[in-house]
């Protein structure tokens, strides 16, 4: 008689009965293994948490007082009848793929990931397995990312042009991961960088754990934009059009997202500029990760699930869609990630 699969998909989330834990559960559970700190993966209410040592500071900052243990990348731990380890996902600092093994059956839950090295996160590492759980946020062939250097040049050229035009450039990005990646891409010789509170709070957490970020100026109630000529403002999308943003007078808005690849999305965002950059894998990155896993069985979570799954099956994988409550890279202006 065939034994039960090592991981199953339950109403609470991805579950390992032999280990008594869930991975990135979206309902409160006794024990949660967490791939990274974004709000759709690291949720409050669990009895105990396990994540990487690099992800822990942000998760504690976001969730408050929790029972949290950590592992280093590649460090194995026996939990019940299975061996667990965390491996770099390249998504944001501390993000991980979670490997769960029992004998010859090996599952990898990749969480959110990207295979390109962004110079900030620990680069993605392929992990051999028999079963691979993948996102498909950008699982269409149209999504192919330009180089990070070329996007950096576009953003810095826009910043310079705004100064000439007498405008303040306001760049929108997620507070965790994307904002810090952009900070490392900005040319600080152009001018100072002003930051929204949500961005600056995350910056402070990362600086405290030794992650090198350029100098920034938090936007406090008493800040006078005139005292910071030539500045670029780095904010969450929720801040656009708010009283907080109106203090900067004439602004030019930019939005950094993989969705900026689509012209219709750029129009709906009503931003002056769209910059194509994502902390998720593009089409070729998804396929690179799946091939690198060596897995025969593929489970496709959030994104273009039906289309991507059909393509994988046509290519010879045994793929199926798995409904989850993960969100990927959203376009909701209220999302601060």
Describe the structure.
- With 337 residues, this protein is α/β, with parallel strands linked by helices.
- The chain contains eight helices and 19 strands.
- The protein folds into two domains: 177 residues, Ribonuclease Z/Hydroxyacylglutathione hydrolase-like (Metallo-beta-lactamase, Chain A, 4-Layer Sandwich), CATH 3.60.15.10; 128 residues, Rossmann fold, CATH 3.40.50.
- The strands form three sheets. Strands 7-8-9-10-11-18-19 form a seven-stranded mixed β-sheet, with helices on one face. Strands 1-2-3-4-5-6 form a six-stranded mixed β-sheet, with no helix packed on it. The protein has a six-stranded parallel β-sheet with strand order 14-13-15-12-16-17.
- A hairpin with a 7-residue loop joins strand 8 and strand 9.
- The relative contact order is 0.15.
- The C terminus is likely disordered.
Give the topology.
Layout: E1 8-10, E2 13-16, E3 21-23, E4 31-33, E5 48-52, H1 56-63, E6 68-71, E7 77-79, E8 82-88, E9 96-102, E10 105-109, E11 131-136, H2 148-165, E12 168-172, H3 178-185, E13 193-195, H4 197-208, E14 217-218, E15 232-235, H5 243-246, E16 251-256, H6 263-269, E17 273-275, H7 283-293, E18 297-303, H8 305-314, E19 318-321
Parallel strand pairs: 3-4, 4-5, 5-6, 10-11, 11-18, 12-15, 12-16, 13-14, 13-15, 16-17, 18-19
Antiparallel strand pairs: 1-2, 2-3, 7-8, 8-9, 9-10
